[in-house]
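One chain is below:
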Amino acid sequence: MRRDAVPALALLAAGWALTLWVMPWSDQSLNDLPVYLAFAEPVLDGSLPYRDVAFEYPPLAAPVIALPGAAGTGVETFRWAFALWTLAGGAALVLLCGALARATDGDTRRAMLAAALMPVLLGAIVRTHFDVFPVVLVLAGLLLLCRDRPLAGLAVLGAGGMLKVFPLVAVPVALVWLVKRGLRREAWQGALACAAVLVAVAAAAVAVSPSGAADAVSYHLDRPLQVESTPALVLVALDGMGLGDAERVGSHRSDGIEHPAASALTGLFTTALLLTLALLTLRAGPSRRDLVAASLAGVVAFAVLGKVLSPQFVVWAVPLGALALAWRQHLLAGVVALAAVLTLIEFPAHYLDFLGRAPGAVALVAARNLLLLAALVLVLSRLGLGRQQELLDRGRTPVAVGVD
């Protein structure tokens, strides 16, 4: 481990302690640990996900969720084990942000210290949800690509997609990036490696229980718009203008919104997401920095333009903010950090106020979502400039954009 990683890891551990003992960071009045524990207990006793236990996540999430239960399935034991497990994931995230900063000619120390602030900015959601682990796989896949190991990198992104779907948004960015660097063979071989991982893991789930695996897919397809998602906020605004009733429904272990325009708006935002991902992919230049920025912005787009934006999804944006600071893109770093802080203020302390549509709470969530959208705009405005900026960071004169 690099010596300059020690202060960042110490900061991370101190932040994790805040989430355990100091309010408001330790507020876990709303969290997913009971759901995880209810899943871990039977699985550790030999039951299989999908067949014996209903499971809403992709297959590789099963061991990630169940493993802390090996220390014990008492409520407090599991709470502590999951906290230590996610702390290990947080440490990997910090180190990977540092490695990606080095690979893209950013400031390594800045990247690690910024990533280490994750628990301070977001509170207990970082240790009561498993979202840090798919983020780690995104970063690991991107680092392998930056180190000229495209097959391994794309295979890791495929594994990330089988942990939680959003890492797959980095795949088209990576494939087009390889083509722009003249690596067509590596691109199609990497695509095959990614597909092989996806097919193998999915086939294992189907073999365990075809109906259970199908139920996991339909669970998300049938899920209504989650109340904090951007399209749901638009529906609430339409309701406020007298354009249809936006009714809150308890569904799929969360709070959703139903409205006459919900289906049309979901389709509109899905189209916007696909267009944003295409724009990020096409605008990214052949520099390593562009690969990383476009991929991480794609992850943010998946959250802010999708039908679900649970508070823990803001964890996905942490590496973009950390690396923005490493690249001295201070406005982008500040926007991501402020989005995290607003999430900490709103959830869980004011979540019930938000459900009751208290103006202040609704404004908090709307501002958070707008900040994430602003982060996308900022990334898009800089794509294609990655090579010149890397040269400036090295103290050299920029030349025409090309393969680095």
